[in-house]
Design a protein that fits this description.
The protein is α+β, with helices and mostly antiparallel strands and about 130 residues long. The chain has helices at about 50-60, 110-115, 120-130; strands at about 1-10, 20-25, 35, 40, 70-75, 80-90, 105-110. The protein contains 3 helices and 7 strands, in the order ββββαβββαα.
């Protein structure tokens, strides 16, 4: 079994809304939960926060403007891999410029609006229901 570490972030704007990204279904054909928060796998040898900043910049063109705060660690155990997903909260300013190979739409939503979202990533939904955001 392969072990991977991923970093994700609930990015909040100055209005207090959070960024959700819609995964490009051409690239992620088999994924369930097409709306997700920003993030991805880490590059070993680089700090978690630097990996998070890189993922945010690559996927959205945004720069984190606050110190990211770790809010959760989740185990995602699949047939051939075990992913440890570390989720943070952080603030950003501006509007995303998407890498459309990864994500093709974005929305800024309140926590309540995210809970009502259709086709939300199940690990994001789990955190919202636990109230960690």
């Amino acid at each position: 079994m392969k072990l991977q570490v991923g970093v994700k972030a609930f990015l909040q704007n100055f209005e207090g809304k959070y960024l959700l990204l819609h995964r490009n279904i051409e690239k992620y054909k088999d994924v369930q939960g097409t709306w997700d928060i920003v993030g991805g796998r880490i590059d070993p040898g680089t700090s978690l926060i630097e990996n998070l900043k890189r993922e945010v910049m690559e996927e959205t063109g945004l720069t984190i403007t606050s110190l990211p705060v770790l809010i959760s660690a989740q185990d995602i155990i699949l047939t051939e891999k075990h992913v440890v997903r570390l989720t943070y909260t952080a603030r950003v300013e501006g509007e995303p410029i998407l890498d459309t190979e990864e994500n093709d739409l974005f929305e800024w939503l309140t926590k309540e609006e995210m809970l009502k979202s259709k086709d939300l990533d199940k690990y994001v939904l789990e955190l919202l229901k636990k109230g960690v955001v």
